[in-house]
Each structure stands twice: as C-alpha cells, then as structure tokens.
Input
Amino acid sequence: MKVVLVVDTQADFMDPDGALAVAGADVLAEPMRAWLAGLSPADTAAVLFTFDTHFAETYASLPEAAQFPIHCVRETAGWQNVLDPEGIDPLIPVYRLEKGVFAMWEEPGLELQPVAGGANADRDAFFADLRESGVEDATVTGVAADYCVRWAIDGLVARGFRVTVPQALTRGIARPIEQVLAQDFAGEAVRLG
Output
C-alpha cells in the first residue's frame, strides 16, 4: 500500500499565464489525470492534494514574498486545482491540505479535509496512523520539484516512508527533480519512478 501526494497542482503554477507559472508544468495535467485515474484501491491507501494558500493582505510579510510574486490567493482562479479529484477511484480516500509555506509539515495544527465529506484529520496523526497500519511507501507528484515537492519528500522520509517520484509528473523552477534527488536525498529511501 502507498499514500499519494499531489503537490500544488494549482492554476497559478500549472497554467502558462499563472502568477507563478512553472516552466513545462502545463503539459503535466493530462498525464497526471490519467495516472490518478489508474490508481487502484487495492494498493492506494489515500490521495492527498496540497494547496499553496496565501492571502493578499498578509503575503508581503512572508519570507516567500522576497523570492516570488503573490500567487495562489485563496478562492481566486489561480488558487484552484487544475486536477479533478473525482477522476480518482471513489474507493480511495481523497483529502486536501491547505498550507501557507513551502513545507507542508511546518505549520502546526494543520488538518486534512476529506474531499467527499467526513471528519477532518490532524495532519501528523494521519501520517502516523498510515505508518502504524503498515503503509511504508509514498508517491509524490506535482510542482515545484525544488520547493514544495522537495519539502513534501523531506517530511515523508523523516516519518519513515520510502518515496517514489514519477519523473514525468513533476517540474521544478530552478532544478529538475532528478537534480533535487541527487543533491538533497542521496542515500535516502527516495527514487525516481
């Protein structure tokens, strides 16, 4: 069994005219839709979509503002996911997680929201419960390979997961995923898929 993380597949990153368009990300949407539709409940414990989430009133005070223009403002068109979770087998639990920084693990008290209804789940307890139930593998896709994808991988490794990153389903801003893995995860349980 594996858990799947789909990192920040939002219009501001994925669309060529988005506020922080990642080069080549626009060609990922169709292959990602097909890949997600092919996931099986027999070997997929859950799918989690992360959402980079900012607010116009506070963005300028964030460290990220020194590097990047404002993007993914909550409830705007650029904040929306370009992938439809309904394309995933309905027997696979699907969640979403809004985060305001690069690392989805950094902010305390974040909760996963089930897409199909139900109770929210504490982020840390959710991943601890997966490990306790025997889920050892994670697959990570999305953007940007050298920022939010990189930090998602880092947190999964720290929590004892083996991580696979499908090379064809991620793009980076300054570094491609193969360079990120070679430079940041040498010797770790992380591989290209």
Remarks:
- The radius of gyration is 16 Å.
- The longest helix spans residues 148-158.
